[in-house]
Structures are given as C-alpha cells and as structure tokens.
C-alpha cells in the first residue's frame, strides 16, 4: 500500500460519519432534522442499501458554506 492510499484511507476514517445519530451529534441537530435534510437534499447525506445513512464531514461543511446560504446584501430580512 502506498503512502497516498494510506492517507486517503485515514482521511476517510476521520471524515466519515455513519448513521443519523453521528451526523446529528456532529451538527448539533436532532436526528429528525438530519433525516429531513437528507430527504429534501439540503445536505449531502448519503444512503446505500446495506450501509444506511452516512455522510462526510468535509462535504457537509462545504455545503453549509455555499453562497446561497447567505442573505443577499440587498435583503431587508432580519434575523
């Protein structure tokens, strides 16, 4: 096994979240909110037969940082 393969496997292990509970804990959300985000496609939460729900921290963080999550400067909406 090369160093590049080793680093990739290590990165996946650190980056990988298995199950709605793990994803919810990482985000500080309820499990229901995680499932809803997956159902609506709001976050890159994956599902695979035999594996179940899983996600990668780096993909979730990237999705939360996209410009479409910001309020436009011309918006008068308040938080």
Structure, described:
With 79 residues, the protein is of the alpha+beta class. The protein contains four helices and three strands, in the order H-E-H-H-E-E-H. The protein has helices at 3-15, 20-27, 31-40, 57-64, and strands at residues 16-18, 45-48, 52-56. A three-stranded antiparallel β-sheet has the order 1-3-2. The N and C termini lie far apart (51 Å). Mean pLDDT is 85; it is low at 1-5.
What topology emerges from the helices and strands here?
Layout: H1 3-15, E1 16-18, H2 20-27, H3 31-40, E2 45-48, E3 52-56, H4 57-64
* Helix content class: 40-55%
What class do helices, strands and sheet pairing give? alpha+beta
Please, how many helices? Answer: 4
Low-confidence stretches: 1-5
Give helix and strand order, one letter per element, not per position: HEHHEEH
Q: What spatial order of strands do you see in the largest sheet?
A: 1-3-2
State the distance separating the first and last CA atoms.
51 Å
Beta-strand percent range: 15-25%
The main sheet comes to: 3 strands, antiparallel
Brief descriptors of the model:
alpha+beta, three-stranded antiparallel sheet, globular, 15% strand
């Amino acid at each position: 096994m090369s160093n590049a393969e080793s680093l990739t496997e290590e990165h996946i292990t650190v980056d990988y979240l298995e199950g709605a509970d793990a994803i919810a804990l990482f985000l500080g959300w309820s499990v229901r909110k995680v499932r809803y985000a997956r159902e609506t496609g709001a976050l890159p939460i994956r599902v695979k037969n035999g594996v179940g729900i899983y996600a990668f921290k780096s993909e979730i963080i990237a999705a939360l940082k996209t410009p479409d999550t910001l309020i436009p400067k011309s918006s008068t909406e308040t938080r």
